[in-house]
Amino acid sequence: MTTVAAYAAPAAKAPLERTTIERREVGEFDVLIDIKFAGICHSDIHQAREGWGEAIFPMVPGHEIAGIVSEVGSGVTKYKVGDRVGVGCLVDSCRECENCKAGLEQYCTGGNVGTYNAIDKNGEPTYGGYSEKIVVDENFVVRIPDGLSLDVAAPLLCAGITTYSPLRHWNAGPGKKVAILGMGGLGHMGVKIAHALGAEVTVLSQSLRKKEDGLKLGADHYYATSDENTFKELRGTFDLILSTVSAPLNLDQFLSLLKTDGAFVNVGAPEEPVRLNLFSVIGGRKTLAGSGIGGIQETQEMLDFCAEHGFGAEIELIKADQINEAYERVLNSDVRYRFVIDTATI
């Protein structure tokens, strides 16, 4: 076992504090990663505050991890010491079910293992990226292309793949009108990726406060959802709406913006239930769907895509002792657009 420094929530809703954790020894197929940067995802806050249900404490959040390989097991073939790598939301899965064999480890029916707030196959809790080092099976590590700096690549391991996967699955591209609902950590990546895929991109945000940013990042149009005229003007417009919002919405209102056979896809996960009038999907044969991250192969594809198109996330780099302040700022939508921890400060 190796002792490393980390930031952990000792209990639900408690401020995160500096501590130490134990990492397992490097096994035959393991990779030891010196973590350089870790993104702060809204999911970290939901879980550290038990917004999504009972959690495991102490909790070291963080599933947007970028770093350098410092040791490999004797059986590792994919990576070598010095490689630039990333770890996202998963560190294992059953590897045997139909979904795993299809590269859909995020939908593993045998039970995947989260990077944190989960129990690993050795029976121990998993600890995430707010730490100095992590040991991960090589099959759940991805390569970060040379064209991406590690700091802006870290948020791609969740925010990037969470938006890339549904945009690809629902065929965002030339000739398609795509709306990104919410202009935050997920939303700003959705705008970049949908634009790079060739879609006509509209941002739907509460206000026009971030309009200039949205247009710079690739949006063709930008509307405020607080303006009732938006819903009149855009009725029946979109082939796809990707919702990154983690608060309950008036789904009937937003479903009215879809074309016939359009899809409203949720990647934001509110803590509270939402209401729906089924006539909103029956009329127009519309789809209300959800999507969760992506498999390991698709995550690698996403990283390569972002490098090819020359972009990572828009970030604000912080020190580890600013994590609690950053959590409050995320809740107040006061970040443009992803906090990333410089783990050298842990």
UniProtKB/TrEMBL annotation:
Keyword Zinc tagged: yes
EC numbers, comma separated: 1.1.1.2
Enzyme class: oxidoreductase
CDD domains reported in the protein's UniProt record: CAD1
InterPro entries tied to this protein: ADH-like_C, ADH-like_N, ADH_Zn_CS, CAD-like, ER, GroES-like_sf, NAD(P)-bd_dom_sf
Domain Enoyl reductase (ER): 14-341
Cofactor or coenzyme needed: Zn(2+)
Record-linked Pfam families: ADH_N (PF08240), ADH_zinc_N (PF00107)
Keywords associated with the record: Metal-binding, Oxidoreductase, Zinc
A Gene Ontology molecular function term of the record: alcohol dehydrogenase (NADP+) activity
Swiss-Prot/TrEMBL catalytic activity: a primary alcohol + NADP(+) = an aldehyde + NADPH + H(+)
PANTHER family, sorted: ALDEHYDE REDUCTASE (PTHR42683)
Annotated family: Belongs to the zinc-containing alcohol dehydrogenase family.
Full protein name: alcohol dehydrogenase (NADP(+))
Organism: Streptomyces curacoi
Lineage: Bacteria, Bacillati, Actinomycetota, Actinomycetes, Kitasatosporales
